[in-house]
Amino acid sequence: MRPILLLAPAVSLAALLSSTAAHAACVESPSGTYTCTGLQTGGLADNDDDVSVTIDLGAEVENNSGDALRVRGNDTVVENNGTLTADGDGVDSGDNGSGLTVTNNGTINANARGVNADDEDDVTVINTGLINAPSNDGIRLGNGANATFLNSGTLISGDEGMEAGDNATVTNDIGASITAVEDAIQIGEAASITNSGTIQSTGTDGDGVDMDSGTVVNTATGSISTAASSSAGIDFDASSVLVSTIINSGTIAGGIGIQVELGGADPANVQTQIVRTDGVIIGSGGIAMDLGASDDQVAIFDDLTFQSTADYNLGSGAPVQIVGKTNLGTGEDTLAFLNTADGGMIYDAVLNDLFDGGADTDTVIFSASKSDLTASTLIADILSLTFEDSGMAQVLNFKDFEFFTFGADRLTGLGGTTYAAAELTAPVPLPAGFVLLGGGLAALGAARARRKG
Ligand SMILES: [Ca+2]
Ligand SMILES: [Ca+2]
Ligand SMILES: [Ca+2]
Ligand SMILES: [Ca+2]
Questions:
Q1: What would the pLDDT profile of 337-351 be if each residue is shown by its tens digit?
Q2: Which residues cross the membrane (predicted)?
Q3: Rounded to whole angstroms, how far apart are CA atoms 237 and 334?
């Protein structure tokens, strides 16, 4: 038995030495430039600046006790056409610094973060493949500024999908997905998000998008959502930027559809939000939009195709839906219903929940003319207006709006004729009118006097 025992380790050692040589599949030439063509175990580490790593199709860099790529210098370039497999991060670019570019056309399977560059600025991640980080963040940039994430592939995260600081740009293409247990996207001020794919939080307290300020364009194929009943499709945290804009032809859905922090658990956002939608906004908990303080604008269009650009197409052709209440909050807010057809009202829309102007002087704008307003009732502070045209009808319910404009421009919402809310309620029969009309009494008396004379 003894010779056999001695023989066995000798064979294993030879095999180990042989395989170690074979596993150094990343070749450095010239200095700082690596090309990986086979299986490299134990990861690859080079923390100098200007390092470049290319993993060829079919090649793999694997590390079962750390990061696949540990490249902590500045201006690192990674192109993965193969596979990165790591017990740690797929790509670890270290903390701070700047200039990481990762193009993933293959697969990154990381037990920690897919791409980790905490607080690093000017990071670009282009993903056409799979970034799979089921236990941690997909792309973690902390407060790193000027991040760019172009996704036409799949990102899966057990924590936050993509986290970055101010001035981030995210483009999520048709068919692409960003799926996370916590916030799918968590970014700061002046963000720019263009979504034609799926951005979703699947956990119990994550938002689809959590941002401070910026612009979100959600095209007809785009969906931004959370499964969490207490969270939002899009959540605006406190911000120092005056105006943010959401243009939606797709679906935005959550416990609250669009939430502006009002100052509960999180500090309040007191800036202006502008929402233009011909798509679907759903608040499954009963609030579709909570826009908070400052002068906010919601414009509901039959068709936003006219706002398409070279970069994106708007207009779904499907009926617009606002499911849940819309709260415009304090400030002088405006709410518009604009349609180039059907006499100006949006008759195929689902708009039966309450629109609440909240405190201060708020205005509703219709492209429909006042002659299409066929009924108006005020019951317990809720003004219900019925519009009818060619056998179609739409009933809209308002609270705390002080002015109503009819016949406004069908694209801009400008112009038209404005009435005070009280002018829209049905005339109250006498003698109750003498008690309720108050100041109107003198005018009424004067009219009678003239008639007598
Ligand atoms: Ca606001
Ligand atoms: Ca407001
Ligand atoms: Ca208001
Ligand atoms: Ca008001």
A1: 999 999 999 999 999
A2: 428-447
A3: 22
